[in-house]
Design a protein that fits this description.
It is a multi-pass membrane protein. This protein has helices at residues 2-23, 28-37, 40-43, 45-54, 63-82, 87-113. The protein is an all-alpha fold. It starts with a helix and ends with a helix.
């Protein structure tokens, strides 16, 4: 299911780039910077594995992280739909969404390994 969501989010990235260009009137260079920032959470992906393996959250090692990352993703997309009016708030929402997908990817991959 997580991999299906990652595929669907690939389509959503196309819509986000048009949103940044058409609605927020951000030029292509700034759009590239904002979309590049969304790859930052992927750079520290091993850290999330260490966190989810060593720190229990609500009594679970992985399930609670998966639920919280899903809620974080839903929150970031909801903010993007309703409250984004500048390039900084858009970048923050995109970064939160990317963090959510990255963390859930790490958790699911660790569950597959088990």
């Amino acid at each position: 299911m997580v991999y299906f969501v990652q595929g669907v989010l690939g389509l959503a990235r196309l819509a986000v780039s048009f949103y940044l260009k058409d609605d927020l009137h951000i030029d292509p260079a700034e759009t590239a910077v904002i979309m590049g920032l969304s790859s930052l959470p992927w750079l520290v992906k091993p850290l999330y594995g260490f966190i989810s393996d060593s720190v229990l959250l609500f009594g679970y090692r992985r399930r609670s992280y998966l639920v919280l990352s899903g809620l974080l993703g839903a929150f970031s997309w909801s903010l993007m739909a309703g409250f984004v009016d500048s390039k900084y708030s858009a970048a923050s929402c995109i970064l939160l969404g990317s963090l959510s997908v990255t963390f859930s990817d790490v958790v699911v991959e660790s569950m597959v390994v088990e």
